[in-house]
Design goal:
By secondary structure, this protein is an alpha/beta fold. It folds into 2 domains: 310 residues, Zn peptidases (Aminopeptidase); 96 residues, Pdz3 Domain (Roll), CATH 2.30.42. The protein is built from 10 helices and 19 strands. The strands form 4 sheets. Strands 1, 2, 3, 4, 5, 6, 7, 8 and 10 form a 9-stranded mixed sheet that branches. Strands 13, 14, 15, 16, 17 and 18 form a 6-stranded antiparallel sheet that branches. Helix 2 crosses helix 4 and helix 2 crosses helix 8. The longest helix is centred in the last third of the chain and has 20 residues. It is globular and about 60 Å long.
């Protein structure tokens, strides 16, 4: 088949996507969830309750069966979260029941978190305290795609395997909702879950490839996404590093193959500027199409996928963990960069630089490749984060980086993120 014919077929495939998924519907969801009315969907707020009720109403309207406690759509519990005590937390769960007696009890789980940072807790940059963090990309976009998938499949899909849709709470506080789910869900045995597909920050695709994080957790992922690219024309890029990026990690910790759909770092991460005006509506449609193809495949797959991940080696996705540092320092140390997960060379490639951060003030730029931290070679993200976490805010460090083949060295003072 000629390259021209292949390209034409891809264009034809993309042209049909809007007939299946509604970009307008997804944008309406993002508009509401990221509105000032919902004040950033912070956990322990009246506004996150509104968000949960909105998601529940969409589950119900689309025909999902309740998957929560006591015949409801909610899985609820009370838990201390960081410095807040006795918080009432809530996951929203809906189900498309499986039809095959031998497969229905080994489900596929589709997830997205619906919480964000509210007015800046638990992760606020200095100067943004008290401002609404709307979280349009992170993660109203993931919820919007999930709700659109439900809207277009819940009443027509008759899957062999049960398909469970979950909107997780408290992801921003350390994967609280997803870890509670995998440790406490009773309707299906967690160990029988064939896979988790997690949607987080998928709102800014534009002309980029759709990133699939943690694709090392099963050998089959490579072939699955080769298939989706062929059938949809939407390009994907598989990231095989053990990255702790979102709720899929809770499943990986249980030995379940799991991936996150993601579109890459941006300068608005965890800032009040993460607004709907920066969302790519057409990209939402492309993402929904890839995820739907993946669901359809997994829901009919006869055999489980062997887990090939390495949960114990997972490393955080940004330059700061939400949990306490291994050295006992609970402050969030940062230089102000987001890594480019696509990079597979030696070092850590800078995907984005935060404005007025230590890296920004030192003159570091997107696409710089960090080679050394205080004179020690950092061949990959795991080594880099290890050395970063050994420091505390206010420490001075020397960063050696490569730019267009030339090595540069800067001294900067680490900040508290």
């Amino acid at each position: 088949m000629s390259d021209v014919k292949v390209e034409l077929e891809k264009r034809d495939a993309l042209a049909t996507l809007d007939h299946v998924f509604s970009a307008e519907r997804m944008m309406e969801t993002i508009k509401y969830l990221s509105s000032d009315e919902l004040k950033g969907r912070g956990i322990d707020s009246p506004e996150i309750e509104k968000a949960a009720d909105y998601i529940k109403s969409k589950f119900e309207e689309s025909g999902l069966q309740p998957g929560g406690d006591d015949g409801t759509y909610y899985q609820t519990w009370v838990q201390d979260v960081l410095d807040k005590k006795n918080l009432k937390l809530k996951n929203v769960i809906g189900i498309i029941p499986g039809t095959d007696p031998e497969l229905k009890d080994a489900p596929v789980v589709i997830s997205a978190h619906y919480d964000h940072l509210g007015l800046g807790w638990p992760d606020v940059r200095k100067g943004n305290e008290g401002l609404i963090h709307n979280g349009a990309d992170d993660n109203a976009s993931g919820i919007a795609v999930m709700l659109e998938l439900i809207k277009t499949t819940a009443k027509s899909l008759k899957p062999s395997r049960t398909v469970i849709f979950v909107a997780f709470t408290a992801e921003e506080a350390g994967l609280i909702g997803s870890r509670y789910f995998v440790n406490n869900y009773q309707k299906y045995q967690i160990g029988k879950i064939i896979a988790n597909l997690n949607l987080d920050s998928v709102g800014r695709l534009f002309e980029k490839k759709l990133i699939v994080i943690n694709s090392n957790t099963a050998r089959e992922w490579k072939f699955i996404f080769m298939g989706t690219e062929f059938t949809t024309g939407v390009a994907t890029e598989l990231i095989t590093q053990n990255i702790d990026a979102s709720d899929q990690v809770a499943f990986i910790e249980k030995g379940i193959p799991a991936v996150q759909f993601f579109v890459g770092p941006n300068n608005d991460y965890h800032r009040p500027t993460d607004d709907i005006s920066k969302i790519d509506a057409a990209g939402l449609v492309k993402t929904a199409t890839v995820v739907k193809e993946t669901i359809l495949y997994l829901a009919e797959r006869k055999e489980p996928m062997a887990f090939t991940g390495k949960a114990k080696d997972i490393i955080p996705s940004a330059d700061v963990p939400m949990k306490q540092h291994k050295n006992g320092n609970s402050k969030k140390t940062a230089i102000g960069i987001m890594p480019d997960f696509r990079f597979s060379g030696i070092g850590v490639k800078v995907g984005a630089v935060s404005e007025d951060s230590p890296a920004d003030m030192a003159g570091m730029l997107k696409d710089d490749i960090i080679k050394k931290f205080n004179g020690i070679e950092v061949n990959n993200l795991k080594i880099y984060t290890k050395h970063l976490y050994a420091q505390k805010p206010g420490d001075s460090v020397i960063i050696t980086f490569e730019r267009k083949g030339e090595l540069k060295e800067v001294e900067l003072t680490l900040s508290e993120r």
